[in-house]
Amino acid sequence: MKTTLTIAAALSAALLLAGQVLAQDPSEKCFGIAKAGKNDCQTATSSCAGTSKKDAQADAWLSVPKGVCGKITGGSLSKG
Questions:
Q1: At CB < 8 A and 24+ separation, what contacts does 4-13 make?
Q2: pTM for the whole thing?
Q3: What is the pLDDT of residues 34-54, one digit of tens each?
Q4: Residue 74 and residue 32 in contact, taking contact as beta carbons nearer than 8 Å
């Protein structure tokens, strides 16, 4: 019984920490950097994730950690 409680407590702590890390790591949409078929969400010409038609499509985006998009060649925070 003691082992079960220890394992349950460890799992609970791990889940709480994972949630805190996700909440502290804001992301932003970075347009113009996705490879064809690797975008995160819909574009003006495609209906869902993974359907962009060409590399570096201006309206296709990837979610990246905040502050990273400006460091990527061709990356933009707005649709191009």
A1: none
A2: 0.62
A3: 999 999 987 777 778 888 889
A4: yes
Helix (H) or strand (E) holding 62: strand 61-65
CA-based nearest residue to 63, from 33, 43, 36: 33
Q: Which residues pair with 29 in a beta bridge?
A: 63
Q: Which residues contact 44 (CB under 8 A, 6 or more apart)?
A: 59, 79
Domain boundaries, the chain: 2-71
Residue 71 tokens read as: 């460091």
CB 53 within 8 A of CB 30: no
Instruction: Tally helices (H) and strands (E) across the chain.
Output: 1, 2
Q: Tens of pLDDT along 51-72?
A: 888 999 998 999 999 999 999 9
Contact 64, 72 (CB under 8 A): yes
